[in-house]
Amino acid sequence: MNNNKFYLLFIPIILIIVISLTIIEATLNDNHVDAIEVNDKFNSNLLFYNNVIYIDYDEILNFNSQINNLINVSSSLNSLVDIFMKEDKNIKMYSEEDNKVLETNLSKELAQKLFGSYLNIKNDVVLKILFRDANNRQEVKNIDFKINKEQILREGIVKTAVEQVGNTGEKYWEWYGYNHRVEWCAVFVSWVAEQYDLIDSGVMPKFIWVKKGVDFFEEKKQLKFPNEYTPKGGDIIFYNWNAHENDIIDHVGIVEKVQNGYVYAIEGNVGYKDVQRKKYKLNSSYIYAYGVPQF
């Protein structure tokens, strides 16, 4: 009998364990993957977990008609991205394991509109779309450019300018239309801009006189002075070598980077000779202003 009483002491403990396991199971069920297929997040057709929707772009295109209905709000993913961009200005595309991943925040309302027939969406969500072999996809490149346009253009301008270091001026002034030597620092800047169609689009000027470049940015209210602005790669830098004597803008180049209190620039016609990398203290009196293109 005493033994029976001893065993009875374990009944409350067992009950507590059972109740605890029930609560844990219910909690896990609440956080369970809500998906059409439950797979690894980058191998699934549609996966919803912890308020993140994961979609493989290949599967969107090749899955059944139900999934295709998800993108019927537009004729292409580019158009759908436009909808996302209006909803969330922080939409981004980045590389993960050599693929491109599009990520955006969706309001509960938009997420329900797009995915409500398939997923139980109760809050705002994050949408992640994986593009396999993204480097070979023109559509993905177009979307990447649309989302990261300024960053891509700035990096491209700097890369192209750096690649010119050591060149003399013939190809730049000949491109501009001259068959003889001219002062070509502004011509060099114009040539780099042309490589990215920034002149025809009105983002950058085609100019040979440095003051014309200053006027271009000033008219657009895109001229920034050193005491009010820290430049970024791809900005245009204007110089006045004799600021204490006159207001003549003498020279122009392309900002490469800012580092440790210095601004590095790529400039043509340095020493009336070639393209060179130069650096100046950010508070240098030589720096007149920066042209900040609106990409």
How does this model look, in words?
With 295 residues, this protein is an alpha+beta fold. Helix content is 37%, strand content 22%. It is built from eleven helices and eleven strands. The strands form two sheets. A six-stranded antiparallel β-sheet has the order 6-11-7-8-9-10. Strands 1-2-5-4-3 form a five-stranded mixed β-sheet. Strand 3 and strand 4 form a beta hairpin. The radius of gyration is 29 Å and the shape is elongated. The protein starts with a helix and ends with a strand.
List keywords for this structure.
11 helices, 6-stranded antiparallel β-sheet, 5-stranded mixed β-sheet, elongated, 37% helix, 295 residues, alpha+beta
Strand content: 15-25%
Secondary structure: number of strands: 11
- What is the rounded Rg? 29 Å
Cα(first) to Cα(last) distance is 87 Å
The biggest sheet, with number of strands, parallel, antiparallel or mixed sense and barrel status, is: 6 strands, antiparallel
User: Can you count the helices?
Assistant: 11
In helices, the fraction of residues equals 25-40%
Biggest sheet, spatial arrangement of strands: 6-11-7-8-9-10
Chain-averaged pLDDT: 85
Overall 3D shape: elongated
Structural class per helix/strand content?
A: alpha+beta
Query: What low-confidence regions span 5 or more consecutive residues with pLDDT below 50?
Result: 30-43
Instruction: Report the order of strands and helices.
Output: HHEEHHHEEHEHHHHHEEEEEE
